[in-house]
Amino acid sequence: MRDRSKRFRLTILFFCVVLSAAQTQASGFGGLAALTERGFLVSAEARLLDSNEVLGAIEPRRQLSPASVSKAYVAAAALDRWGPQHRFNTRLVSEGNLDAQGKLHGDLVFDGSGDPSLSSEDLWRLVKRLHQRGVRDVDGRLVISQWRFGPVECITTDRCDAHSRVTNAYSALLSSAGINHGSWCVSVAPGTAAGEPARITHCDSHAPLIDINNQVVTRHDDSGTELHAERISRGAGDIMVVKGQMSLNALPRQLYRASSDPALQTATLLKAMLDEAGIAINGEVVTSIAEPAPAAWRLAQVEGKPLQEVLLRTMNYSNNFMADMLALDLVRTPRATLDLGGAAIERFVAGIPGHGELTLRSGSGLTPDNRTSAHGINILLESMYHRPSLFPSFVASFQSPGNGVMRFIRRGSYDFQHNVMLKTGTLNEPVAVRAIGGYFRTQRGRWGVFSVLVNGTSTTPWLNWTQVFDPLTEDLTRMITEH
User: Cis peptide leading into 151, omega within 30 of 0?
Assistant: First the structure.
């Protein structure tokens, strides 16, 4: 009896110790813990990298949606594959012959490389190099080849809707021949007098690239500017419908909306630039999924930005087009899909010991069925911390709350604002998701990693960033100052 009583007391003591440890870890996220009481699903973990000491944890291995924190996985996989200085090269090629008079006898083919940051400036440099090569006339077609990937099947509602109409740029469709993040840009300036229509032009060319339906009225000075733009697609092509009002003394505004076909968008802009450079295209302008023939020779080439700069823009601005383009680039075979891009990242993460389960259906995080855990994200962050040749480029792509480009993260204590580097993620459908992951430095200079995933359910109320950020800033500030 005494032995049984002793075993019972030891068992009770053991569970008390375990419960006490669990409460201690959860108390590290005391503010965030209140969200669980309201029915939200939370996975959170913060720990020091030198000692592996866990400073706070709430269901750290629970699988939840990370939203745009998914982009951290893309950044790590891309750096692992190519290194920080990798550049994507975009070419103009042809099987035809170029005669002494500058006539190219054959098709001019734009070989889309999948460069996530390819811009109008790059396209103009490509055209100038073609002109420098001596090409003045093309006795053939202008072919935009998206053989690597594109058009990519849409697997989210926003992107599928963007085929017909869209009021944003973040739903941009995907193609290895895409340019300007897959979006049209128009510049809106006030008219010459109050009551006159605003002046709306294309940002990238004097030529009319797409139709513009101008419903913006100029108002008197300081009357306020309110603009609404929607890109719609009809049989004849894309139309930008711009409504609202603009003050007479207002500065021009640029509006970006996803195009219905990024390869065709590239074709339209490239043709306008060729015309401006005095290079005539005598044949049709078409898009193709065929790879340029092995016999095709290079007429002009432009190098993209270094990968470390691409990642800075992808992560800081949470650019969905760039993230998903990188994920598609990771696929080693042509005709890549978002699922294949996600699978390539999953294979990379499978080589990181201790990460655990990961499901990625996109690199951007637009897909609500992406799944990981706070513990898994921290394992990823830790693995990159221990790679000296890659870590500087990786951590530089995270934002500091004190000077980040996203205004809503500029909050919390001085220690939080200047000792934390983070990536955020947001989804509102089908449930609210607020996710954060990154690094912190304590007052003693110790490195730590933290991740917080908060997912709503069909029965939980609306979740805004204040409800997550404010308690997190207090919890992390305490960890920073106490260690």
Answer: yes
The tokens describing 223, both together, are 């009357």
Return the higher-pLDDT residue of 21 and 26.
26
Please state the pTM of the whole predicted model.
0.92
Q: Is residue 243 within a helix (H) or strand (E), and if so which, with residue range?
A: strand 237-247
What span, in angstroms and rounded, lies between the C-alpha atoms of 24 and 30?
A: 9
pLDDT for residue 14 is more than 50: no
| CA pair distance 454, 131, nearest whole angstrom | 54
Q: What is the pLDDT of residue 15?
A: 40
* Interatomic CA distance for residues 461 and 258, integer angstroms: 31
Determine whether 37 is exposed, middle or buried from the number of CB atoms within 10 Å of its CB (0-12, 13-18, 19+): exposed
The SS3 of residue 349 is helix
Residue 450, φ and ψ in degrees, nearest 5? -145, 150
b/e map of 271-308 (b: 16 or more CB within 10 Å)? Answer: bbbbeeeebebeeebebbbeebeeebeebbbbebbbbb
CA 429 to chain CA mean position, Å: 18
- In this predicted model, what pLDDT tens digit does every residue of 331-371 receive, in sequence order? 999 999 999 999 999 999 999 999 999 999 999 999 999 99
In the block, tokens 């990298």 appear at: 49
What separation in angstroms does the CA of 193 have from each of 105, 187, 190, 221, 468?
51, 18, 8, 10, 47
What residues does 255 pair with on adjacent strands?
186
Asked if 402 and 413 count as a contact pair (C-beta separation under 8 A), the reply is no
Show the tokens assigned to 434: 């607020």
Closest of 425, 395, 390 to residue 409, by C-alpha? 425
Supply the DSSP symbol for 388: T
In whole angstroms, give the CA distance from residue 441 to residue 449.
9
**DSSP letters spanning 107-124:** -EEEE----TT--HHHHH
pLDDT score recorded for residue 210: 94
Give the per-residue pLDDT at 5.
53
Asked whether 279 and 135 are in contact (CB, 8 A), the reply is yes
- The residues with which 399 forms a beta bridge, in sequence order, are 422
8 A C-beta contact, residue 133 and residue 300: yes
CA distance 143 to 95: 12
Neighbours of 91 (CB within 10 A): 19
Nearest residue to 97 (alpha-carbon basis) of 132, 134, 126: 134
**pLDDT mean over 10-25:** 41
In terms of Cα–Cα distance, which of 397, 393, 440, 438 is closest to 415? 440
* Mean pLDDT on 168-183: 97
The count of other CB atoms within 10 Å of the CB of residue 230 is: 15
